[in-house]
UniProtKB/TrEMBL annotation:
GO molecular function, one term: 3-oxoadipate enol-lactonase activity
Protein name: 3-oxoadipate enol-lactonase
Lineage summary: Bacteria, Bacillati, Actinomycetota, Actinomycetes, Streptosporangiales
Annotated Pfam families: Abhydrolase_1
Top-level lineage group: Bacteria
Any GO BP annotation: beta-ketoadipate pathway
Stored NCBIfam families: protocat_pcaD
Organism: Actinomadura coerulea
Amino acid sequence: MSAAPHHRLDGPDGAPLVVLGPSLGTSMDLWLPQLPALTRAWRVLRYDLPGHGGAPAPAGPFTVDDLAGGVLALLDGLGVERAAYAGVSLGGAVGTALALRAPERVASLVLCCTSPRFGDPRFWRERAALVRREGVGPVADSAAERWFTPSFTGADPYVAMLRATDAEGYAGCCEALAAFDATARLAEIRAPALVVAGAQDGPTPPRGHADRLAAGIPGARLAVVEGAGHLANAERPAEVTEAITAHLDRTWRGTGR
């Protein structure tokens, strides 16, 4: 499955392009907190995962590498040779796969609240089975607790994204996460990389996830955001936006054509 995904472009024509990848259970609107700052200097391309947001449900199984192939198809269709990429959680895994699959296309990389391997594959297969059996309701009911710290009061719009997600799309993404393991290949990544972690991230805590990405990718920087859970860009938007724009200012000011 490498068809171009449902997407949206914002920001000035001709500016260097930044692709933004969302997390499991969210839509491209996960990135709305960062959009005003990013569109001042970059052309921003957001996309939806299969069955998420405005994207149709998948026709069959797919892998994280297939999702990266869809991003490449999107860039090809837009005539873009090189772009920066930033992704949260599963969206970050897509960025890792993209940087490994087509290193010449990735000018800069931001991996936010993600991992080279998302734990025991059995957990993800069991969650896929649960969602196929009961729908997304059970995972949506506990999403705020998984995604944010207890003090965060703005979870509702993000949980609503999950409740609107197609069950098969969500289950397919779970199975893609189950099969993903880039640990042994991180040293092959050549893009200048920033790894952003939420200090209180439960699903992908800094220790054992973000630190492995930062140690494995040559020259990668690690930024740990205090007071942030798994969706750090939503919970601590100012800090995450500043980290991303500073990284892109250093690494991606050229043309995307």
